[in-house]
Amino acid sequence: MYSTKEYLKHGLLFVLTLIATTLAGGEWLFGRSILSSERPLDWEFFLRSLHFSIPFIGILLVHELGHLFTSIHHRVKSSLPYFIPAWLGFIGAPSIGTFGAIIHMKSFVSSRRKFFDIGVAGPLAGFVLALFILIYGFTNLPEADFIYEIHPEYADPNYVHGENEDAMDLRLGYNLLFWAMENTLADPEKMPNMSEVIHFPYLFAGYLALFFTAINLLPIGQLDGGHIIFGLFPKNHKRISFGAYTTFLFFAGLGIINPQEEFNYLIIALPIYVGFVYICFRKSGLSNTNKWTVALLIVAVQYSIVSAFPSVEGYSGWLFFAFLIGRVLGINHPEVMDPTPLTKNQKILGWLAVFLFIICFTPQPFIIK
């Protein structure tokens, strides 16, 4: 079915991504880089970093294989998984070693049921593995003094956390599932705070897996969640997709324009931001006038809310992803020749996927100070 050249190409990308995530894992887990002269990532710590990269890449692989095997079952021609390596340590930027993985469907999907099966299989398969990895991580936490290996300065009674203003402070946000597992499975004496989870390979790999699962399950366009909504709500999927995207973009940009800023800044920033929101709706199917109307309305409501409640803010980190959806992927789902409704079992899986999205989605996943 696939040529030797394809196996070699996709296999090479997989190996490069595994290496890249291992290098990134060394930076997150131990603060060590192969480019560092003070704390280099030697062979010992590279191998220890595999405790992060193998489960993380394993979850992504199982997710994509869920799509692939379901495509093969339905005789829909698809590519092997494309893994995208992205280690940015050579420029001093933090990264997780990858931009994720995708498969490309090369043939037309003729039926609503096929679209649904292909869309739901990946998130469900990846989630099952992520759940087991998180269970293992929460129930096998190292002793509390493990953190001193990473941050020996914490052992100093005179040390004040956060006193170094030049250091990056990254805190992970909670989602419902991570919070529930922490409070039911973890030993409180050993459980790290959300600023230190990055040093615990199985917790961090599982957290990232939930992050990617939630992104894929957004009920928008041609994301996995969009396929699911297309199957569950054949008559209303366009409205749901548009509403979900508008809400997502609204939350992402909430607070990015603050009325408390100086007038000279606002007079430049406001038109640029309105233009950005307009561009995000380029593939919405709206008329040009309606795109401008929606963009102006979103910014006006955001501006009004922040005027009344200056401390309110969304999560600007979502803006880039909102741009990719609106400008590249598109908000609408393609129609099919065979509109046969889903079976009862498919509907149960669909609602299960909706539930997983709710418990996995993190409004503010990476809070950097």
What tags apply to this protein structure?
single chain; 369 residues; mainly alpha; two-stranded antiparallel sheet; 4 strands
What would your notes on this structure say?
This protein has 369 residues and is mostly helical. The chain has two domains: 4-230 and 339-368, no CATH class; 235-329, no CATH class. The protein is 57% helix and 5% strand. The chain has helices spanning 4-30, 43-73, 112-139, 147-150, 176-185, 201-216, 224-232, 237-253, 263-280, 288-308, 319-329, 344-360; strands at 82-86, 97-102, 170-172, 366-368. The strands form two sheets. Strands 1-2 form a two-stranded antiparallel sheet. The protein has a two-stranded antiparallel ribbon with strand order 3-4. The longest helix is centred in the N-terminal third of the chain and has 31 residues, at 43-73. The chain starts with a helix and ends with a strand.
Set out the fold topology:
Elements: H1 4-30, H2 43-73, E1 82-86, E2 97-102, H3 112-139, H4 147-150, E3 170-172, H5 176-185, H6 201-216, H7 224-232, H8 237-253, H9 263-280, H10 288-308, H11 319-329, H12 344-360, E4 366-368
Antiparallel strand pairs: 1-2, 3-4
Number of helices: 12
The overall number of domains is 2
The rough form would be described as globular
Which structural class is indicated by helix and strand composition? mainly alpha
The averaged pLDDT comes out at: 91
Alpha-carbon Rg, integer: 22 Å
Tell me roughly what share of residues is in helical segments.
55-70%
- Per DSSP, what share of the residues sits in E-state strands of 2 or more residues? under 5%
Count of DSSP strands: 4
Q: Which strand order does the major sheet show?
A: 1-2
* Major β-sheet annotation: 2 strands, antiparallel
| Euclidean distance between termini CA atoms | 49 Å
